[in-house]
Amino acid sequence: MHPTPSPPGQLQLRGDGQPPGLSIAGDWTLQHYPRLKREIERARPRLDAACPVELDGLGALDTAGASLLVELLGPQRLADIARWAPQLPAERLALLHTVATAVAGAAAAPEEEAKRSTLRDELAHIGRVVEMLWEQQRTLYGFIGLTLSTLLLSLPRPRRWRVTPLVAHIERTGLDAVPIVALLTFMVGAVVAFLGATVLGQFGATIYTVNLVAYSFLREFGVLLCAILMAGRTASAFAAQIGAMKANEEIDAIRALGLDPVELLVLPRVLAMLVTLPILTFIAMLCGILGGLAVCVLALDISPVQYFAILEQEISVNHYLVGLGKAPLFAFLIAVIGCLEGFKAGGSAQSVGERTTSSVVQSIFMVILLDALAALFLMEMGW
């Protein structure tokens, strides 16, 4: 014999009490949802919070029926159903309590959103940004330590040196960058000479344009322009290359073969930058001074002999050493940041693009920050 099915859900108002009582019986399921919805809309105006409710005749119950009961009786009342209707089975008490709590939380969320303070939101956003920057710097310092430790472990073992990738990266990062570095620094040197001549000419001191060009390019502009160019050209290339390998799971394959990705991918790029950036810095210094020479010869009537005589007599070699000494530090940071951002890339092209952009921004920021700190330190030391 088949069990007798329960009657469809129904609700009945009893008018023999004050306030009137409510009896709920039958199956409150999705099958009867439209009819029960209409009955609830008709009965709700005659109910209040103190209306007694009988649930003894309640049959089957699902989430749709529980939501109707929450709409009828209110989420606060049903959230406390275990107290006033303990006779119901435990699974129905749990279902009604869960649905009532969810509905109450959804109703309270817009109110909490409206009460949120704009100032608090801004402070929270600043806190998240600061925390993100702190984690970013911690990751960078950890990766620098990993790179240096791998380099120290590889130096005593010449068989592990990767000479071919090193030479290939020297060509790409150094030789291929010579034309753009030379052209840019030559034009900047000419601009600095024009500005110097314009300002110093008001005081009859145009001859000191030579000193201005020499000081600016030997100490600052030569290495700084090269580092910014390498950040935009080389750090982005490192991040894109390693990020593409990460997206294609090639780095996982390298680890599966028992090889070290840092030794295989990072060290050749870092060492190539350490070799090429000082050379490019020297070229930038030379081209910047030649740009200033062109302006001095063409616009200021300063002969090349006089120009180089001033450089020899009044510009000491320590200015050249100060500028050249910054190049290895900038080169190391640019290469490490580019490689780290490549390892951070996910499995999508969008992630690779975001990390490539991040590598350029971080590299330029770190270069300018360190250059400013070095300028302050050298000024205090009198070097």
Q: What key phrases describe this protein's structure?
A:
383 residues; mainly alpha; Transcription Regulator spoIIAA; 2 domains; 3-stranded mixed beta sheet; 14 helices; 74% helix; ABC_MlaE_roteobac; MlaE family lipid ABC transporter permease subunit
Walk me through the structure:
This protein is mostly helical and 383 residues long. It has two domains: 106 residues, Transcription Regulator spoIIAA (2-Layer Sandwich); 246 residues, no CATH class. It is built from 14 helices and three strands. The protein has a three-stranded mixed β-sheet, covered by helices on one side. Helix 8 packs antiparallel against helix 9 and helix 9 packs antiparallel against helix 14. It is elongated and about 115 Å long. The termini are far apart.
**Mean residue pLDDT:** 84
Radius of gyration: 37 Å
Question: In terms of per-residue confidence, which ranges show pLDDT below 50 for 5 or more consecutive residues?
Answer: none
Strand fraction: 5-15%
Shape type: elongated
Count all strands and give the number: 3
| Tally of domains | 2
Query: What are the secondary-structure elements, in order, as H or E?
Result: EEHEHHHHHHHHHHHHH
Could you give the distance between the termini? 103 Å
Fraction of residues in helix: over 70%
Structural class: mainly alpha
